[in-house]
Amino acid sequence: MPKKNQIIEGLIEDAVFPNKGILYLNGEPIYITGTFKGQTVKARIFKKKNQKWEAKLLEVLEKPHYFIDPGCDYFGACGGCSTQHLTYEMQLKLKHDQVTALLTEAGLAGYEDLGIVPSPEALEYRNKMEFSFGDAVKGGPMTLGMHKKNSTYDILTVGGCKLVDPDFTAILEHTLDYCTKHHLEYYKKLAHTGFMRYLVIRKSKTFGEILINIVTSSQKDFDFTELAAELAGLQLIGSVSGVLHTLSDTLADAVKPEKIDLIYGTDAINEKILGLEFKISPFSFFQTNTLGAEVLYKNALNLISDMNHKIVFDLYCGTGTITQIMATQAKKVYGIEIVKEAVEKAKENAAFNKLSNCEFIAGDVLTEVDNLSESPDIIVLDPPRDGIHPKAIQKIINFNAKELLYISCKPTSLARDLPVFKEAGYTIDRLLCVDMFPQTAHVETVVKLTKQTH
């Protein structure tokens, strides 16, 4: 019988989403985050959650034969990547196997499994990074980058990060040098004192335009005009289109804008997906893998048999990317999104793309679906990581749409929601995984459902 604080050693015999290996102790499974099938590990049991024992990895005693050199100086120390030491083919297999295992565990079967589609780029694919100011060790020099693995406070400066192109590194390093030179202190989360909080960089894959957002507290007055000019003058592959200074005094470890000042250029960049152009502002939701998003949307919409002359509801539509792609075929598309700024951008983008048959509504799906008077032929669901609110699911079912397309960024939420649709008379026709997040445990999953008529 496992005990709390017990030190165990053994072979990881299986793995489940997200990134948890299973070691069997006297026949009982022990779940260890960050471990992989074939590893021999040492771990400490620390809790029992939902009738499952969990342990913390202490040491990898033996690596499996399929591990490779991750090729990144920060791998293992930085919390940004978790699977860079696997070949890309192995990463894809792992993700697909874990998704199908979750659906099997949820009692779902009989669907056509279309496998997993790789990302067009396995490295340097991210179009957005949010870097944090801090220190790597308490009382050490200021750093700017990513959180250390399993750490809330320690920050590693990650110049040369493999998930982004070299322009991100150049901007990160210059900003850190400038702030250090000007004695600008980083914001201490526990004490709620200090100034520099985040550096958020977005870059258009299509046009090379770069938007830089310097996020600080309001505890100091500082003019970043000089820094903005220096950043705009850097020798980059792309070009800096705009630099903003955002004030955020929230106690949360997140960027919540209270005041935004444009200090150089424009406040948005442009991106193109499947022939349509999108304007992306600092706080717009946009898929972080542009080329992967094209693959995701193209393959997802190919699962719908026919969209011509159909009414479509796109729930949780973000800035309306997929809404507008569907609007090029459908009779009318309604998009609902809770973030008002995203809806404003969606309306601007639709006008720019000369699409008059899509309507965007700002509000919570749970309440806004009650105000839709038309009956949808097709409903597209792309909810946040936690999935669909249980009350919203029932309202969606009540529309009686013939086809549903569920796009999920968290398979555990998908596996929880799908049985509810199945119980209501929907069959799961097809499953497709799309790798939008190489070098990590995350994956997008697309499921096509059809309402059974008797």
Q: On the 0-100 scale, what is the average pLDDT?
A: 94
Structural class: alpha/beta
In helices, the fraction of residues equals 10-25%
CATH class of the largest domain: Alpha Beta
CATH architecture term of the largest domain: 3-Layer(aba) Sandwich
Tell me what portion of residues adopts beta-strand conformation. 25-35%
- How many separate domains? 3
Number of helices: 9
How many strand elements?
Answer: 22
- Unreliable stretches (pLDDT < 50, length at least 5) are none
User: CATH superfamily name of the largest domain?
Assistant: Vaccinia Virus protein VP39
- Strand arrangement in the largest pleated sheet: 6-21-22-20-19-16-17-18
User: Sheet with the most strands?
Assistant: 8 strands, mixed
Shape label: globular
Structural notes for this entry:
- This protein has 454 residues and is α/β, with parallel strands linked by helices.
- It has 9 helices and 22 strands.
- The chain has helices spanning 88-105, 166-181, 225-232, 290-302, 321-327, 340-352, 365-368, 390-398, 411-423; strands at 7-16, 20-25, 28-33, 40-49, 52-62, 112-117, 128-135, 142-147, 155-157, 196-203, 209-216, 239-247, 259-265, 269-273, 276-280, 311-315, 332-337, 358-362, 378-381, 403-408, 426-434, 444-451.
- The longest helix is centred in the N-terminal third of the chain and has 18 residues, at 88-105.
